[in-house]
């Protein structure tokens, strides 16, 4: 388990008030991903890109009501642009221990088109066989639309 005192590459303030509710394993995976990516990784500026209060019946890994902690974070790896970047980011996310990986090609950051990733540490999957998905032009598709897995 990660120490809540060590946020590694990130500041507690980047997590929109949910830092103390982060699953420690999520922070470990996020820091490993950042280390191996070799460039800044920006947490989504949207508050619900980290934690959400959705009620106990909603299964989102962001849902603190269901899980009692935040198991997911949306983030923008700097320099994630090409097909080979996407494959590398996906592989690093698995290696870092994310058991849920989403890729969104239809998002923006600071007013510019940017690819966003979702990483989570759900209990019912593993990094060897993660839950995966992608969103392209507002439509959810299989991750294979973006990356050969």
Task: Supply database-style keywords.
six-stranded mixed sheet, disordered N terminus, alpha+beta, 6 strands
What does this structure look like?
This protein is of the alpha+beta class and 149 residues long. The protein has one domain. Helix content is 21%, strand content 25%. The protein has a 6-stranded mixed β-sheet, covered by helices on one side. Strand 3 (100-109) and strand 4 (112-120) form a beta hairpin. The longest helix has 14 residues, at 24-37. The model is unreliable at 1-5 (pLDDT under 50).
Task: Describe how the helices and strands are arranged.
Blueprint: H1 24-37, E1 41-43, H2 64-67, E2 72-77, H3 83-96, E3 100-109, E4 112-120, E5 131-136, E6 139-141
Parallel strand pairs: 3-5
Antiparallel strand pairs: 1-2, 2-4, 3-4, 5-6
Count of β-strands: 6
**Share of helix, binned:** 10-25%
* Total of domains: 1
Q: What amount of the residues lies in strands?
A: 15-25%
Work out the helix count: 3
Largest sheet properties:
6 strands, mixed
Distance between the termini: 28 Å
- N-to-C SSE string, H for helix and E for strand: HEHEHEEEE
Residue windows where pLDDT falls under 50 for at least 5 positions: 1-5
Shape: globular
Q: Gyration radius, to the nearest Å?
A: 14 Å
Can you give the mean pLDDT? 93
Q: Give, in spatial order, the strands making up the sheet with the most strands.
A: 1-2-4-3-5-6
Structural class, by secondary structure, is alpha+beta
Instruction: Specify the oligomeric state.
Output: single chain
């Amino acid at each position: 388990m990660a120490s809540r005192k060590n946020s590694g590459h990130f500041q507690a303030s980047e997590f929109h008030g949910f830092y103390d509710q982060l699953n420690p394993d999520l922070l470990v995976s996020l820091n490993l991903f950042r280390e191996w990516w070799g460039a800044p990784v920006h947490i989504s500026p949207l508050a619900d890109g980290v934690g959400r209060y959705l009620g106990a019946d909603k299964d989102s890994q962001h849902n603190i009501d269901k899980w009692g902690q935040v198991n997911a974070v949306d983030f923008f790896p700097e320099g994630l642009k090409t097909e080979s970047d996407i494959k590398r980011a996906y592989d690093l996310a698995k290696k870092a221990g994310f058991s849920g990986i989403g890729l969104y090609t239809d998002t923006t950051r600071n007013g510019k088109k940017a690819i966003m990733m979702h990483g989570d540490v759900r209990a019912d999957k593993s990094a060897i066989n993660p839950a995966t998905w992608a969103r392209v032009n507002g439509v959810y598709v299989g991750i294979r639309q973006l990356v050969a897995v």
